[in-house]
């Protein structure tokens, strides 16, 4: 009977057109594993209770399933019982109140500061694309911009060494333009009007080879050529934004200040960098507090 209920459910979601074949196969496998857990504990699929689902989730965690995998398996069980509830087969969804595990957010990888600075300070070949690409890289690292924000900059976005940038949700923020970025941008602006043909995007700060506003995709590809040898792994341009935040925190900036510069609407988003702030405070404590000095002797 249990298998029949699951088969009917799989037929239902297959015909709904809302689920991909991969998801349907995964849900089928997840539900069969749940039935096995119930059978091993003498429980019935239709009469299952909250604790049955909870114990199954705990068991998945104990045998090494990751948070994302467990979340998907729990989603399959919740969807299954929600279907039975709508069909009038059960009154209460036993999985409804089971909380999915929180996924650990990995700390974004920051690029090594010394290597990054060495690459950015290397003499370039003065070709127009290199000059433009170096300016884009300096702004990404020096201002913490997203690639999309960089591509959306206009000439009018720069005013007295302050950049006015439009972020997510059309929210505007002001970011200081560091000295190195100012220099790189100045070199690019010298050649922008003469080396990049104007194709109707005269307001755009960064132009493509064809004279149109550079796309985020092309900007990402060009920046990758600049930072390609930084760090042990293949770097991604978005790491420049994480490097911006990490290097600021390592050198004394507060989480609140970094939040403002990154354009995070909630401090929760910036808290992924909390451990860097804590490490810095511990360092300061060990250097400054008398009792810490005693401990180190």
Report on the structure:
The chain has two domains: 2-86, DNA polymerase, domain 1 (Orthogonal Bundle), CATH 1.10.150; 113-285, Orthogonal Bundle (hpI Integrase, Chain A). A hairpin with a 5-residue loop joins β2 (162-166) and β3 (172-176). The protein contains 14 helices and three strands. α1 packs antiparallel against α2 (21-40), α3 packs antiparallel against α4 (67-86) and α6 packs across α10. Helices cover 58% and strands 4% of the residues. Strands 1-2-3 form a three-stranded antiparallel β-sheet, with no helix packed on it. The model has no long low-confidence stretch (mean pLDDT 84). The chain is elongated, with a radius of gyration of 27 Å. The chain starts with a helix and ends with a helix. The chain is mainly alpha-helical and 297 residues long.
Distance between the termini: 71 Å
- What percent of the residues sit in helical stretches (DSSP H or I)? 55-70%
CATH homologous superfamily heading of the largest domain: Intergrase catalytic core
Number of beta strands: 3
**Largest beta sheet, briefly?**
3 strands, antiparallel
Beta fraction:
under 5%
According to CATH, the fold-level topology of the largest domain is hpI Integrase, Chain A
Helix/strand/pairing class, anyone?
mainly alpha
| Uncertain residue segments | none
Arithmetic mean pLDDT = 84
Number of domains: 2
**Count of helical segments?**
14
SSE succession: HHHHHHHEEEHHHHHHH
Which terms would index this structure?
single chain; 297 residues; mainly alpha; DNA polymerase, domain 1; hpI Integrase, Chain A; 2 domains; 3-stranded antiparallel β-sheet; 14 helices; 3 strands; 58% helix
């Amino acid at each position: 009977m249990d298998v029949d209920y699951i088969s009917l459910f799989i037929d239902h979601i297959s015909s709904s057109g809302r689920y991909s074949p991969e998801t349907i196969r995964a849900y089928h496998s997840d539900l069969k594993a749940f039935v096995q857990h119930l059978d091993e504990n003498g429980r019935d699929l239709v009469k299952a209770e909250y604790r049955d689902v909870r114990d199954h989730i705990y068991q998945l965690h104990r045998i090494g399933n990751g948070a994302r995998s467990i979340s998907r398996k729990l989603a399959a069980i919740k969807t299954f019982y929600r279907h039975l509830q709508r069909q009038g087969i059960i009154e209460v969804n036993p999985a409804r109140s089971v909380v999915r595990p929180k996924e650990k957010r990995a700390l974004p990888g920051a690029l090594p500061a010394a290597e990054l600075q060495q690459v950015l300070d290397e003499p370039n070949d003065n070709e127009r694309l290199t000059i433009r690409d170096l300016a884009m890289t300096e702004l990404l690292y020096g201002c913490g911009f997203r690639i999309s924000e960089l591509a959306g900059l206009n000439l009018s976005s720069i005013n007295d060494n302050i950049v006015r940038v439009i972020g997510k949700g059309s929210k505007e923020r002001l970011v200081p333009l560091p000295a190195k970025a100012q220099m790189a941008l100045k070199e690019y602006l010298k050649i922008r009007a003469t080396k990049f043909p104007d194709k109707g995007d005269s307001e755009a700060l960064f132009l493509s080879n064809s004279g149109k506003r550079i796309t985020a995709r092309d900007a990402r590809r060009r920046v990758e050529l600049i930072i390609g040898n930084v760090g042990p792994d293949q770097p991604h341009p978005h790491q420049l934004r994480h490097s911006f935040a990490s290097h600021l925190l390592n050198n004394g900036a507060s989480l609140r200040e970094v939040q403002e510069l990154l354009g995070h609407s909630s401090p929760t988003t910036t808290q992924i960098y909390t451990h860097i702030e804590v490490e810095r405070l511990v360092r300061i404590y060990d250097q400054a507090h008398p009792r810490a000095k005693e401990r180190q002797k």
